[in-house]
Amino acid sequence: MRKIEIYRDTLLIFLRGLLMGTADVIPGVSGGTMALITGIYQRLVHAISQINANFLLAAFKGDFTKSKEELLKWDFNLFIPLLAGIGLAVLTMSKVMTVMLTVYTAPTFAFFFGLILASAGFVYKHVDELNFKNIAFLVIGLVFAIIFVGLNPIQANHTLPIIFLSGMVAICAMILPGISGAFLLLLLNQYEYMLAALNQLKFLDIITFCLGALIGILSFSRLLNYLLEHHKSVTMAFLVGLMIGTLRLPYDRIVTSMDSVIPVIIAAVIGFVLVIVLEKQFEKYHLHWEA
User: Fold this and answer.
1) How far apart are CA 223 and CA 179, in angstroms?
2) How buried is 116 (Cβ within 10 angstroms: 0-12 exposed, 13-18 middle, 19+ buried)?
3) Fewer CB within 10 Å, N or C, the chain?
4) What gap in Å lies between CA 225 and CA 47, rounded to an integer?
5) DSSP assignment of 152-182, as one string?
6) How does residue 24 score in pLDDT terms, banded at 50, 70 and 90?
7) Which residue spans traverse the membrane (predicted)?
8) Are 23 and 33 in contact (CB under 8 A)?
9) In whole angstroms, what is the distance from residue 159 CA to residue 212 CA?
């Protein structure tokens, strides 16, 4: 029976990875949001924050027993299937998103609008109470997101240092519910370039971006883990504000590219309902772990 549970959890983590990877290539939608909806968010942030170089230091000193002990602290049961799902989704969805954003712009962004709106409602459930402090942080997040989304893209080039820095910045957003890493790449003028790099398998650019992402996520995850452990309610309130504020992005794209209102409404409703269905389905399958 225990083996069946392990196989089931591994498959469910892989499916979560597929959802996160899909969200991470969508401007306006966060992979962190999908992690939160599917009930894996705090485990993921905690697991990433536990990664350090102690196993390498022990290995250099010749203490391979200590090195092995440090490695065993890593949550490989989470990382392996989750990264496999994210990687598969990113590679496949990069092609799909290129077509959808070009050919079906308004319905695609309407779908994102529904996703984000329903996700904001889900994140709000994690706010303990609607006191002055939480409301203040919600408003701060809202204002910040509205201003942020209204920024014009930076005309940055596509040199390796810029790609590396873009990976560092984008990955921090990708694990935060409410901030889209893909949208940050749009602002940094790297989104379409990195989609093309994935489609054309430009390995040097891909590896450089991934190295930046690795350093970024290992640094930022410790701060985020601290905030979730000690200031969860205000953090979630801030994220709710961010998510509501980022609705400006899909709304602007819908208004400027809409031919008919009916497909837009249908796509938005589908996105909204999808989040509710995902939340209900993943609530049935709690993963077994201890912080």
Assistant:
1) 16
2) buried
3) N
4) 9
5) PPP-----HHHHHHHHHHHHHHHTSTT--HH
6) confident
7) 12-38, 76-97, 103-123, 135-156, 162-189, 201-221, 233-249, 261-278
8) yes
9) 13
- In the block, residue with structure tokens 């519910």: 177
Q: Token pair for residue 99?
A: 């077509």
**Residues listed for the chain:** 291
**pTM, entire model:** 0.72
196 class by beta-carbon count within 10 Å (0-12 exposed, 13-18 middle, 19+ buried): middle
Give the single-character DSSP code of 281: H
Task: Note the pLDDT tens digit of each residue in 271-291.
Answer: 899 888 877 777 665 555 455
Helices 160-174 and 203-230 pack at an angle, to 10 degrees, of 30
Give 196-203 contacts, CB < 8 A, sequence gap 24+.
198/90, 198/91, 198/94, 199/94, 199/95, 199/98
